[in-house]
């Protein structure tokens, strides 16, 4: 797998530092509250598990599987589908949406609107990666781990065709890998 990576964008050390910083910020903001962290599967699972180890307050979490990509696509379709919905009610809850990467903004735009209709008390977004060059829908991201350039990245939970999620860093996938069709 490592031979398919053009370059490492975010090292293991940088991942750990970002999680520690974000965890401290979230601990401070939600002190005295019981927020619900909503992990957007599958990409954000590794990030959320590492992140909440640095959140030093009572909190709960749930998972939602949302897709705007399909299989081998490297670009979003813009059509956001809920594959697995939440098991927890959002009514009156402080909600923290946990994402792996903010790209076009389509997914978060849809989720924010949905969570508002479900009467969440507040909605904040924490994303490990932010790729502002690709933004189409303007969404406010409250907490960002690392801002990256416009490149197709994998690792640390993010995939191409369900591969590379287990890389311990974030790397740029060589174009010949996804253009090999």
Automatic annotation (TrEMBL):
Keywords: Cytoplasm, Glycosyltransferase, Magnesium, Metal-binding, Nucleotide-binding, Purine salvage, Transferase. One of its GO terms (biological process) is guanine salvage. It catalyses: IMP + diphosphate = hypoxanthine + 5-phospho-alpha-D-ribose 1-diphosphate; GMP + diphosphate = guanine + 5-phospho-alpha-D-ribose 1-diphosphate. InterPro entries: HGPRT (IPR050408), Hxn_phspho_trans (IPR005904), PRTase-like (IPR029057), PRTase_dom (IPR000836). GO terms for cellular component: cytosol. Its EC number is 2.4.2.8. GO terms for molecular function: guanine phosphoribosyltransferase activity; hypoxanthine phosphoribosyltransferase activity; magnesium ion binding; nucleotide binding. SUPFAM superfamilies: PRTase-like. Its cofactor is Mg(2+). Gene3D superfamilies: 3.40.50.2020. Pathway: Purine metabolism; GMP biosynthesis via salvage pathway; GMP from guanine: step 1/1; Purine metabolism; IMP biosynthesis via salvage pathway; IMP from hypoxanthine: step 1/1. Residues 14-160 form the Phosphoribosyltransferase domain. It is found in: Cytoplasm. CDD domains: PRTases_typeI. It is an enzyme of class 2 (transferase). Purine salvage pathway enzyme that catalyzes the transfer of the ribosyl-5-phosphate group from 5-phospho-alpha-D-ribose 1-diphosphate (PRPP) to the N9 position of the 6-oxopurines hypoxanthine and guanine to form the corresponding ribonucleotides IMP (inosine 5'-monophosphate) and GMP (guanosine 5'-monophosphate), with the release of PPi. Belongs to the purine/pyrimidine phosphoribosyltransferase family. This is Hypoxanthine phosphoribosyltransferase. It comes from Companilactobacillus allii. The lineage of its organism: Bacteria, Bacillati, Bacillota, Bacilli, Lactobacillales.
């Amino acid at each position: 797998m490592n031979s398919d990576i053009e370059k490492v964008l975010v090292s293991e050390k940088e991942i750990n530092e970002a999680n520690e910083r974000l965890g401290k910020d979230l601990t401070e903001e939600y002190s005295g509250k019981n927020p619900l962290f909503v992990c957007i599967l599958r990409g954000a699972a590794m990030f959320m598990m590492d992140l909440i180890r640095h959140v030093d307050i009572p909190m709960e979490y749930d998972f939602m599987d949302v897709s705007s990509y399909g299989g081998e696509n490297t670009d979003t379709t813009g059509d956001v589908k809920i594959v697995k919905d939440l098991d927890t009610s959002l009514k009156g809850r402080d909600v923290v949406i946990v994402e792996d990467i903010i790209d076009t903004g389509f997914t978060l735009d849809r989720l924010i609107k949905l969570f508002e209709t479900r009467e969440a008390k507040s909605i904040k977004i924490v994303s490990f990666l932010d790729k502002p060059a690709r933004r189409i829908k303007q969404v406010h991201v409250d907490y960002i781990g690392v801002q990256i350039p416009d490149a197709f990245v994998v690792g640390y939970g993010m995939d191409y065709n369900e591969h590379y999620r287990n890389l311990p860093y974030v790397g740029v996938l060589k174009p010949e890998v996804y253009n090999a069709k």
